[in-house]
Design goal:
- The chain is mainly β.
- The chain folds into two domains: 2-139, Beta-lactamase (3-Layer(aba) Sandwich), CATH 3.40.710.10; 161-244, Lipocalin, CATH 2.40.128.
- It is built from three helices and 14 strands.
- It is globular, with a radius of gyration of 18 Å.
- The termini are far apart.
């Protein structure tokens, strides 16, 4: 709670766009499972060490379902864990974001390596990816997969429409020769969103099949994949169902 966190060295988020401090510190209690726990790096490492060394939790790291739009090699879903393929080597972990604060956790059982990074910037990914490559190359001989890049390609209207999940609406429209996705916060997310509506330009990427795109928050930020499948869009580690095809 805020009255508990104020007694510690609690971080405050900063916007990815201009670096200004956010106006809201904590998520509402109604979405507590998304991240109302304040933790230090030591806390996170202790939690990760338990999953690295205690075989009672090993089953949680087994793939349960494939994930179509891997961010940084994210290929499968375990039980709460995300499973990554880094150059043929399996790594597991989980990322999180609250109000312009991003957290990253990667665990390599084979190398017995844990890496945790906590940031108070909405652009923390720009630090994590090269840092993870440096750490894992040094201690495990693998690097963070290359970030997907935009390439020239044709787009069509097959993905135009409205996609919606709890507290988020995504409207995909065609603008000239490109697709645009308008992110709108709804419901409880409006209580803390610093940017309740944001426009993302979707750029084609490999494979050039009309389903794979990349986007980014702002110039200078790393690209992130956006992948469409029949009835869904995969982005930011989440699946959002398509509700209508209205243009």
């Amino acid at each position: 709670m805020p009255e508990e966190a104020i007694l510690e060295r609690a971080a405050v988020g900063h916007l990815a766009t201009d670096g200004s401090r956010v106006q809201t510190w904590q998520l509402p209690r109604s979405i507590g499972p998304a991240g109302t726990i304040s933790a230090s790096v030591g806390d996170v490492l202790a939690f990760a060490r338990m999953h690295l060394t205690d075989e009672r939790y090993a089953a949680m790291q087994e793939p349960q379902a494939p994930y179509a739009a891997g961010i940084g090699g994210f290929v499968d879903l375990g039980l709460t864990w995300r499973i990554y393929d880094w150059g043929g080597r399996r790594v597991f972990g989980h990322d999180g974001s609250t109000i312009s604060q991003l957290a990253f956790l990667r665990i390599d059982r084979q190398a017995r390596l844990i890496m945790c990074l906590l940031t108070n910037s909405g652009n923390g990914t720009r630090l994590f990816e090269p840092l993870a490559s440096e750490v894992f190359t040094q201690y495990a001989g693998v690097a963070h997969p290359p970030v997907p890049q935009p390439i020239d390609g044709q787009v069509d209207d097959r993905h135009v429409g409205r996609y919606e999940r709890a507290s988020v609406r995504l409207d995909v429209t065609r603008r000239d020769d490109e697709l645009v996705m308008v992110y709108t916060a709804t419901g409880d997310r409006l209580l803390f969103s610093e940017d309740p509506e944001h426009v993302y330009e979707l750029r084609p990427t490999e494979p050039l099949d009309g389903d794979h795109f990349v986007t980014r928050e702002a110039p200078g930020h790393p690209w992130a994949p956006v992948t469409f499948r029949p009835g869904h869009v995969f982005t930011s580690g989440r699946v959002t169902p398509k509700r209508s095809a209205v243009k």
